[in-house]
């Protein structure tokens, strides 16, 4: 990625070049996540030009995952307690994942990595988010609360890990393919939305027969389910399936966010806007491969941009959502 942006829903192209010898690997709000040729990482606000230095996250990954394949493409998901700034107290959680969902979670007080964990229980981490100032993580089946406390020399450490919801009831998802042409797969996303902690489950179909190398390049999103975490102290914590986003629009992918649909100028509520964030080893020529808009009211999927929009791939990274300040 070279700083080329597509404005949604108009499809207008904007360019904000990234620094020399750097490549964009993701985003969070209106910050770009960059990595240079030496492996150093940083966050850059392309409007103010403010920079926040991060550690060499790929080095941390290979240290934690000692048997990791060096050429394995990695996905970085970032989370912060609130809007990011460049103060000394800034805290950034970075989830590093490979295509097989092996993961490592790094807690940083830029530019220093202060704590790293590899697994929660016996499962790998799919996504993380800060909700009401607390860090939550989702695996394939469970929701965890990670307590973060300041320890020696003001370094933030994960002081406790607690499973608060022990199962996700999505195997009974409403969508059932009408043929046996697909192998079903699910991806989980955590999103804070209007004071609610939501789990967004993406059901994809992988076209059969399976190819030897580029299996995920033949996947297509079929359906979404959304669950709200009931975290009230006077009840057993559980997931509750929801059918409405309460006026919000959800954007899911390498970075996920919720915004009021009306303030974004979007014509419909209760919609999930998604990009492809899984086929990283063999990226499709079209960067909008398996991107679209899912309507929760009728279960339909429509293209993310008009079919007449021609987009060429730049680099081998997955597209990411980027939200200018006025949209936040």
Automatic annotation (TrEMBL):
One Pfam family cited in the UniProt record for this chain: Beta-prop_KIB1-4
Superkingdom of this protein's organism: Eukaryota
InterPro entries in UniProt: KIB1-4_b-propeller (IPR005174)
Residues covered by the KIB1-4 beta-propeller domain: 5-295
Protein name, as recorded: KIB1-4 beta-propeller domain-containing protein
């Amino acid at each position: 990625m070279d700083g080329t942006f597509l404005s949604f829903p108009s499809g207008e192209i904007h360019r904000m070049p990234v620094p020399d010898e750097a490549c964009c690997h993701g985003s969070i709000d209106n910050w770009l996540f960059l990595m240079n040729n030496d492996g150093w990482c940083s966050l850059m606000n392309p409007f103010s030009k403010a920079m926040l230095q991060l550690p060499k996250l790929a080095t941390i990954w290979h240290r934690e995952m000692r048997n990791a394949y060096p050429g394995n493409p990695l996905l970085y998901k970032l989370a912060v307690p609130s809007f990011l700034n460049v103060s000394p107290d800034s805290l950034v959680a970075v989830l590093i994942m490979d295509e097989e969902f092996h993961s490592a979670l790094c807690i940083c007080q830029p530019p220093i990595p202060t704590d790293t964990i590899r697994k929660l229980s016996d499962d790998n981490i799919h996504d993380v988010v800060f909700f009401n100032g607390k860090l939550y993580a989702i695996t394939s089946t469970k929701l965890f609360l990670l307590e973060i406390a300041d320890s020696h020399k003001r370094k933030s450490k994960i002081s406790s890990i607690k499973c608060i919801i022990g199962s996700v009831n999505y195997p009974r998802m409403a969508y059932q393919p009408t043929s046996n042409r697909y192998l079903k797969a699910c991806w989980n996303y955590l999103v804070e939305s209007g004071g609610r902690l939501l789990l967004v489950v993406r059901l994809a179909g992988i076209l059969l027969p399976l190819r030897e190398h580029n299996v995920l390049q033949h996947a297509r999103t079929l359906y979404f389910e959304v669950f709200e975490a009931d975290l009230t102290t006077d009840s057993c914590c559980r997931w509750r399936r929801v059918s409405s986003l309460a006026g919000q629009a959800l954007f899911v992918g390498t970075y996920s966010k919720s915004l009021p649909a009306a303030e974004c100028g979007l014509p419909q509520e209760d919609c999930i806007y998604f990009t492809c964030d899984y086929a990283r080893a063999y990226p499709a020529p079209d960067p909008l491969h398996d991107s679209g808009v899912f309507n929760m009211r009728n279960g339909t999927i429509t293209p993310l941009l008009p079919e007449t929009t021609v987009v060429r791939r730049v680099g081998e990274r997955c597209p990411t959502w980027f939200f200018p300040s006025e949209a936040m």
